[in-house]
Queue: 2 jobs
Job 1
Amino acid sequence: MKSKKTQIMPTVWIVIFTTLFLIIAGRFLYIQVSGEVSGVSIQQLADQKRTNNYNIPASRGTIYDRNGMALAQEHIVYRLYAIVDESHTTNPLYPKHVKDVEETAQKLAPILEMDESDIAERLNDGISNERFQVEFGSNARELNQEQKEEIEALELSGINFIEEPIRFYPNGMFASHTIGLTDKQDDKIFGINGVEGFMNDYLIGEDGSISYQRDKFNMKLLDPKEVINKPDNGDDVYLTLDQKVQTLVEDALSEVEEEYDPDRMTAVVMNAKTGEILSLSNRPSYNPNSIGEVQNWYNDVIATPFEPGSTMKIFTLASAIEEGVWNPDDEFQSGTYKVGNITIGDHNGRRGWGEISYLEGIQRSSNVGIAKLAYEKIGPDRFLEYLQDFDFDKKTDIDLPGEVAGRILYNWESEKVTTAFGQGTTTTPIQLMKAATAIANDGKMLKPYIIEKTLDHETKEVIAEHEPEVVGEPISSETAKKTLEVLETVITSENGTGHNIYNLNDYTVAGKTGTAQIPDSENKGYKTGKENYVFSFLGMAPADDPKLIMYVSVKEPNLDQTESGSAPVSFVFKNVMENSLRYLNIEPDKEATEPIEVVEIPVWEDKQTDSYVNKLKDLGIEPIVIGDGEHVKKVNLESGTKITTRQTVLVATDNMKMPDLKGWSFRDVLSFRDFLDLDLEWMGSGYVKKQSIEKGSSLNEKDYLMVELEEPDVPEDQENASDESGDDEIEEEE
């Protein structure tokens, strides 16, 4: 007989299983009806699992020069990766994973410049660890189109590419501190300095997105439910920089850097009537496409205040004229000038030039004369007001990041004197340029700017545009004209510190030289020695109505015993200013000895030498013929090039011989070097005195040539004048 317990247990189990079944069935029914599990939608979860979401990066805007030449733009490169998961291959006849590790490693190694073993190890490691794909480090990133096509031609299975944007600078080392740099953060390009940083919010754009449903093999479904949000690409920024003017500056600075190895250099070219910066450069600089070791991150033109030296005398002179205390014929005793417990000395060893007029004092850059103008005639308090009117106590607010203003030091009696000739008080080149616009622009001082306009990338609609802005009138129009007249004599007068140094061929120049002492932090004074100065020039041309203003400074160049500090500065100024004025079609204001004609280089290919040379002469060109061959081998200018009859034309014959280089300018020698790809070395500066290959000797391309250069003769007193700061300008008494 069964026990009562035995009879009840089956019933209990039936109830339990029935209850569990009802619970599970109810749960399934609930899920089916509601479509949710723990508050999560099953449909949404499924869609999420089988939906690919991708970011569509916005293209960063392009930075252009004023004429639409790209200075910084987005450039597409490629990152290589390899799929090693066999499951990605659906058809064995068309493998989509790396099938042969050894072959893949062998063929990729020379293109990626990697060891075969390194590539094979990465592939095998990915396979053994059951990874879907592997990458190959920095060597497989930022591949160009040529490398990509070379790898694609190998037809290696499993090898794929991802497009990646980088920032590319077409001109390399070109206004690098001004244009700026970018960096990548989470695959997004951000500007970090220069215009790239200053205008980042405009340039960066807003990313878009794309989403679609896929199968387990990552292939789109027939109905992928694709959603695309287009990116809003970054805006384009146009600068006031002119690529051709900037190239003139970069080339000149590079030549000076190579020959003189200075510690620092700056150069700025500005439109005198608008405040637009046409060129701005510093040395040392860097190539933003390949940074390497950067010696100087600062944009010195706007961010490095220094004691400007005698270029400050421009504004002391203008203040005296405006105040009505300037009489060019008044005389003073040069040499030394005592104020309180300090003695000011002129730059020629404190000897001076006897009793001279104030006009001659400006021409000779007399510290004594300018100090007496500021301290005695204008008065310290009134002179300070002029300095403030010229905005030497504030930033220019140029549209670049990192500007640092100089300081007017005016607390002690000595500072009230030395500020007049640019010592003690500090300023930046851009502050000097801004103040100089008042001299060049009828007394109206302009705000310097470098960003011309911002355009919508798609519609080309102007979003923002900069207009010239007058920010002050420290002097009258009449004073500005008188100041220009005096500054022109610094160049034209035989007494002038710029005479025979800063003259241009076709244009008059008004300007002021500067030789500023450099503070010596270790010895609590100023550095001594011939080279330990900041040599500079601030010039405006044409003199009577300046269209361009240019400032050049060269700090501590390596000079020969016979060279003055003005040599590297004048090389930059003359090359850039003369050629920029011509390029901008500014009418020459000097009377030409003969009319300037524009002619076209005739076709020279397959021409006989004599007939071609005669044709050039008929056009008014006196070519330099290299050799005595019967046929023209090459000409330094392409056929059809339009030139003036003053430009140098080199004609190489099929039997080249060395021409006589004596008297050639350094610029012509460089053109000769580039024309024949010569291995050139040189000593000194100026014009050719000696050459290593004798005139008439056989000459071949890539030959080695050494030339010795020398400066033209300069009167002894003028030679001294080019070094305006003595080691003992100021002497303090106990």
Job 2
Amino acid sequence: MYQSYSMELAGRTLTVDINRVGKQANGCAFMHYGDTTVLSTATASEKPRDGIDFFPLSVEFEEKSYAVGKIPGGFNKREGKASENAILTSRVIDRPMRPLFPKDYRNDVTLNNLVMSVDPECRPEIVAMLGSAIATCISDIPFDGPCAMTQVGMKDGEFVINPSQEVWDNGDLQLTVASTREKVIMIEAGANEIPEDKMIEAIYMAHDINQTINDFIMKLVNEVGKPKHEYTSCAVPEEMFAAMREIVTPDEMEVAVFSDDKQTREENIRKVTEKMEEAFADNEEWLPLVGEAVYQYQKKTVRKMILKDHKRPDGRAINQIRPLASEVDIIPRVHGSAMFTRGQTQICDVVTLAPLSEVQKIDGLDENITTKRYMHHYNFPSYSVGETKPSRGPGRREIGHGALAEKALVPVLPSEEEFPYAIRAVSETFESNGSTSMASTCASCMALMAAGVPIKKMVAGISCGLVTGETDDDYIVLTDIQGLEDFFGDMDFKVTGTHDGITAIQMDIKIHGLTRPIVEEAIRRTREARLYIMDEVMSKAIAEPRKEVGQYAPKILQVQIDPAKIGDVVGQKGKTINEIIDRTGVKIDINDEGAVSICGTDKAMLEKAADMIRIITTDFEEGQIFTGKVVGIKEFGAFIEFAPGKEGMVHISKIAKERIEHVEDVLTLGDTVTCICMGKDRMGRISFSIKDVPAQN
């Protein structure tokens, strides 16, 4: 007999079935929220994985097409690799849960979420997030839960808790907040320039709701939770640390890590590691732990320097940004390019413009969004950190960083009506020493402006770090963290925005949550830093979008036609539109509302194609003047083609002012002539004349 538990959440009933399905998993929660159904499981290996120095956690969010009544596209007719949305959802689940597992736990753990049914009023992502937390909490896997997650949207200026898919897609806020029973542990947001105070209000509204969910989870744990299993600790023995401090003193270790050059610091640590390996060469127990032990020794040293001595490894002040530089147009012939450098972090961004026919098509569970017009891709090659390994395409981190920079810039993009282009920005990481995603945001903003994309406002991003002590009020927030401070610190708090508000947030932490004063200080610090970056650095390279797209970018003309005339432009089996394309070399896109986008690099050909479309869709009226080509000659007159599929007839009496016996006396096939519409003749046919065209002065 299975147990079923329910709670009211945001006006809908959340139901969790325990011991109904998936009984062989360590923990399983069969989740129902409205008609959305997700099966969440947590499983762990019996023994730790050998030879690793990290916690091997895998999170999966599986989207099944049957959940929305569809058969997958493609040849195989089954689901393929995870979608971008599935990857991003998995990351959002991973980030708040990972810190709550024991730091010395090395057993493989998989959190799997199978989306089986989707109710558009109840987004499956939030159901999976809660399902993962519940499945892990009630399992025998060591986990310091509970943790809960709430999403906040915005409609007509009002917050909406766990919004429907439509409100989430079309509102001004997409905020996800995870909390333990005391503190906020994860924040992910996309926003349409939400002011800082308003964002903090939304975060803590979600935090309060998370407490009711945590109470619900604890009820489940108390009634059906399994005892946590014992595990083999992979912690470095304290006796080893004591021995290491005899070999390399804390003062010597501080000298080793205190450098503003990453390569110098890495060389110093390499020498320390060699010294430890020599010292422990005969100790079979400690020798395999040297790498992890040196890492922990560095961590303790850096944290003590920052927290107690207020000294950063590169000598900067607590709120000081690394040296900055920016420039545009560094790559020839592309449509737009920019480079942004912050210390030893350097991003080159390249923007490509294309007609709207090249938007990305999306095949997912969200029926509201089927295309994406702005695509931001981020690449992180091994050479950027001085390593060597083959490129195997983007991983989850690269996809996540690209999505964050994309989210940061979407609110300032022009509408399709204002700028009828598909836009792709690619951030290439030339060098990395912390927070490349924020450098990517800055570089992308400048590259868009350099490409002539009329963005509404400038956007910049910066990251804050954190080092905490034994108590909640013993902490230091660091502006612009480098790699070392990210690795050894407790927080990576990324915020992007304009002068007027926040456009994106991504917060990762390694501790069990943040107090409200830390959150508020981080948001305040990031605002100060991003304003400085925009005003003092980015605007010096390019202050506003260029008025026109670049020389090598496609030019687009828009023509609005009567939707009833779309068939005339397309022609039978596409004959007319293909004829226009063949004659002018342009690309043409027409939407159902009659908006015609003409794309090409030759302005004269763009205008010619536009004129053809206007002629095709214009009803002939008396007094109109057209230029066309003679395409047919009969005894009684000549047929003139003004545009593909649009012809008129000039009677022999209307060709010349003097009387002529034969049309061929004046006209030959292929001649270009100018005609005036004379209205309808006695038979009701449209009549044209060459001889009555007014003389031009």
